[in-house]
Write a structure and sequence with these properties.
416 residues, alpha/beta, eight-stranded mixed sheet, six-stranded antiparallel sheet, 13 helices, disordered C terminus, binds adenosine-5'-diphosphate, binds aspartic acid, binds magnesium ion
């Protein structure tokens, strides 16, 4: 008997009617002769509302208590979904993440999964139950509840699909699949039939929240193929898998935008060993996540170092750097919020030249200034003014023929 793991996101279980629709879908899959494990998110808005309440009663809520609070959102949705399945004549049982055997480290609110022991799920499946699991949560070896970071129900689904050796893993959401760009930003964006793990990893890591990036990382590591598809339509979605040679035929698979970034530049620091280490170890010790880092070529023994962080961390970073500026030899610390990172991603970039030039020309023609650039083998990312980000995404989308997904020969004719 085939085993199908399905995950339903917050919008998909956002109202009682939608929960009943999801229950119907789960039941249909079961009636087709499959064993079903369904992972659910909290109903839409519940996690945000809990966070709002937590900050209303405490300026800095204790992370342990936040986890105890947030985990209940998914638990409620799982219980409601199981009730709905039962009301339709099925036999479902709901479980919390800990009951489902999800063990994590101790990093409250951003815990990593260390082990999955799904014995209880397997026993229930053997007794022909439909199992509904609360996403986004696990427990430490000591039995403390933890959560897996925003979007973490995706990770629960991928980890369970891997541990249960599922035949199919489906991520049901409020769009038809993974698109060339967020369809809410670029209306011409098209659904992709397939995407490589590395491409989706880069897209998710640079702002495309359709999948949690840790979940994609986990899927790649354990070879879990999954399909992102609509919970409202019967249509096939986007399959994420290991790359195949034919995937290189498309130069740019997708575009993503990461908003709310801030840029810091330290001008005139000593160009000598240990300076960069000093800056970034101080920043790292404060748990500030650094994204892009650019160091200029040295002139007369000094250089400029620039980097980006989330804008919420800007004040924190300034407080750390200002007192040590003199020791670094730095002349000024310039900071700017209100910038965004725009990334183009595609494994086809490995084998095609001129992609960056074409992206920069497109932005230049539109009068959009590039403030920083970083590249990987399969990604080019630029920092631009946040107010220009959506216009830039639309222009680049059209420049690279996305939405029509031209093969390489047609897409690169004007490259240098
Ligand atoms: P869920 O609640 O089902 O987990 P999310 O809100 O986390 O859903 O993710 C789905 C959303 O991701 C979509 O509504 C869409 O606006 C956004 N998104 C961003 N980039 C993309 C993309 N490239 N393709 C599809 N959706 C995207
Ligand atoms: N409810 C959590 C969130 O809003 C987890 C999830 O939806 O995947 O981030
Ligand atoms: Mg999500």
């Amino acid at each position: 008997m085939r085993l199908i793991v399905q995950k339903y996101g917050g919008t998909s279980v956002g109202t009682p009617d939608r929960i009943c629709h999801v229950a119907q879908r789960i039941l249909e899959t079961h009636r087709q002769g499959c064993r079903v494990v369904a992972i659910v998110s909290a109903m839409a808005g519940v996690t945000d509302e809990f966070l709002r309440l937590a900050h209303a009663v405490s300026p800095q809520p204790t992370k342990r208590e936040l986890d105890n609070l947030l985990a209940t959102g998914e638990q409620g949705a799982a219980a409601l979904t199981a009730m709905a399945v039962n009301a339709l004549g099925g036999t479902a049982i709901s479980m919390t993440g800990p009951q489902a055997g999800i063990l994590t480290d101790h990093n409250h609110t951003r815990a990593r999964i260390s082990n999955v022991s799904p014995k209880q799920i397997n026993d229930l499946l053997a007794d022909d139950y439909i199992v509904i699991v609360a996403g986004f949560q696990g427990q430490t070896p000591e039995g403390e509840t933890t959560t897996l970071g925003r979007g973490g129900s995706d990770l629960t689904a991928i980890a369970l699909a891997g541990a249960l050796n599922a035949d199919v893993c489906q991520i049901f959401t409020d769009v038809d699949g993974v698109f060339t760009c967020d369809p809410r930003i670029v209306k011409e964006a098209e659904k992709l039939d397939e995407v490589a793990y590395d491409e989706l990893l880069e897209m998710a890591g640079s702002g495309a929240k359709v999948m949690q990036s840790r979940a994609v990382e986990f899927a790649k590591k354990f070879g879990v193929e999954f399909e992102v598809r609509s919970s409202f339509k019967p249509d096939a979605g986007t399959v994420t898998r290991e790359e195949t040679p034919s995937m290189e035929d498309i130069v740019v698979r997708g575009i993503s935008i990461d908003r709310h970034q801030a840029k810091l530049s330290i001008a005139g620091v000593h160009d000598k060993p240990g300076i960069a280490a000093r800056i970034f170890s101080d920043i790292g010790a404060a748990h500030i996540i650094v994204d892009m880092i650019v160091q200029n070529a040295s002139i007369d023994g000094t250089t400029d170092i620039s980097f980006t962080i989330h804008e919420d961390e800007l004040e924190n970073a300034r407080t750390i750097l200002m007192p040590v500026l003199g020791q670094l030899g730095g002349k000024r610390l310039n900071t700017a919020s209100g910038v965004a990172k725009l990334s183009i991603v595609g494994i086809g970039m490995r084998s095609h030249s001129g992609v960056a030039a074409r992206m920069f020309e497109c932005l230049g023609r539109a009068g959009i200034n590039i403030q920083m650039v970083s590249t990987s083998e399969i990604k080019i990312a630029v920092i631009i003014d946040e107010n220009e980000a959506e216009r830039a995404a639309r222009l680049i989308h059209s420049e690279f023929g996305l939405g029509r997904l031209l093969p390489v020969a047609a897409a690169t004719h004007s490259l240098a």
